Amino acid sequence: MKNALSAMGRRTAPPPISWLMQAALSRPQIISLAAGFTDSATLPVKISRQVLNRVLRSSKTGQPALQYGITAGETNLRQLTARHLQTLDQSPSSLSSSLQRKSRTSTKDEDDKIHSWERTMITGGSQQLLYMTVEALGDEGDIVLVEDPTYFVFLSILQSRGLRARGVRLERDGLDLGHLETVLQRLKKSGGLRRTKALYLISYFHNPTGVTTSFEKKRGVLKLLKKFEGAAGHPIYLIEDAAYRELRFKGPDIRSALMVPGAAERVIYTGTYSKPYAPGARVGFGILPKLLFTAVQRIKGNHDFGTANLLQQLLAGELKTGLYDRHVAKIRTRYGRKAQGMKQALARHFPSNVEIWESGGGLYFWTRLPKNISTGVKSKVFRTALKNDVLYVPGELCYADDPSRPKPDHEMRISFGSASEADIREGIKRLGKVLRKYCP
Ligand code: PMP
């Protein structure tokens, strides 16, 4: 008898993350530099209790917090989130005054504002928003451009929903604009442009490479997408995933793509409170162009008709009282210190022919071995590392199945997020020992 699964049920491949987590769980002594988990020691237990106590102290605030809410999110949190993003985007450096005015002034039409709270949605992590955005934009066979490499769970969404991914080369300061133009030209020629719906860009402290895209490059990306829209016959959206934006420990913040003139119509900005606050609360958010906001809101109506209210109240309370900002300042210092510790350990233990990409934020170092040395799940390097109780994310998992190029297989993502400082030193020492054996 045939099974009763849908095409999607049959098609969806097991997520690579499950396999990695299982490998970690099966060996409790393992040091995992693979997980994108945040630092447990600094999770905000005390201030969460403080705010939740306040919310639940009286039935006036407690009852609504324990009730169903609004599909797009609680008005209060949507407004606080929009204001928070506006503040981030108004770093005084190089903001033109007309942009500042547009962003700040309360125009009659809230929708017109760059950081409109009415186009701000609260979701179950930014993962849910990414998923719903793909649902709203993509049919089976459609194409989404991604950075090469990119966040592997996003690739899993595309795989599961039957979409195709095309990789665009990544440079140390963001997307290779020349290559983006080449890819778009090629798609135009092959007829693929008509199926191309979006470009997915992780613009701050990229997962897995740590790269941050400059504002100029974001402007360049939007200009190119716009240039090809005529031939596509529809808008090509930019999904700007800013999941790691607030985990910045070096350098100034960079304006989001929303600040490029005209971008409000084309940019889907996704962010999260998971990384800077608590993944266990799992509250994400986004600002969407009006058309997409409406479509995604309807889809969310079917997913869960609203993110957990209690958790939204928690985040709203943290933001309102300034506890959130203080917490973020604290963890930035902490991640900066952990990154520094990892950098020193890498310099000490890794062979000199391994290229190391350092970042000013986020959770990751990206390391590139000589091209002939495989780091994939079946490679000697990976298996020996596992035997020596240390785990990393093989770079190959982060590359789309793009027929126009071979998949690189000589890189590793290593995270300083969840491991303790001592485990980071020990983990890198173990990994260094493995690498010395295979890349002399
Ligand atoms: N985007 C990126 C780039 C991520 O790395 C992650 C989590 N690892 C997410 C989105 C989703 O995070 P969350 O659902 O917790 O907001």
Point out poorly predicted stretches.
none
| Secondary structure category | alpha/beta
Q: Compute the number of helices.
A: 15
Mean pLDDT: 94
**Gyration radius, in Å:** 22 Å
The helicity comes to 40-55%
Largest sheet report: 8 strands, mixed
Could you say which overall geometry the principal axes of the C-alpha atoms support? globular
Number of strand segments: 14
The amount of beta strand, in percent, is 5-15%
Distance between the termini: 54 Å
Order of helices and strands: HHEHHHHEHEHEEHEHEEEHHHEEHEEEH
Give, in spatial order, the strands making up the sheet with the most strands.
2-9-8-7-6-3-4-5
Q: Which ions, cofactors or small ligands are bound in this entry?
A: 4'-deoxy-4'-aminopyridoxal-5'-phosphate
Fold and architecture overview:
The N and C termini lie far apart (54 Å). The chain has 440 residues and is of the alpha/beta class. The strands form three sheets. An eight-stranded mixed β-sheet has the order 2-9-8-7-6-3-4-5, with helices on both faces. The protein is globular. It has helices spanning 7-11, 16-26, 45-57, 59-65, 75-89, 97-104, 125-137, 152-160, 177-190, 215-232, 290-303, 309-321, 323-349, 380-387, 421-438, and strands at residues 31-32, 120-124, 143-148, 164-171, 174-175, 196-202, 237-241, 267-272, 283-287, 355-357, 364-368, 390-391, 393-394, 411-415. β4 (164-171) and β5 form a beta hairpin. α3 (45-57) crosses α4 (59-65), α7 crosses α11 (290-303) and α9 runs parallel beside α10. 4'-deoxy-4'-aminopyridoxal-5'-phosphate (PMP) is lined by residues 36, 125-127, 151, 202, 207, 241, 243, 272, 274, 279, 282, 284.
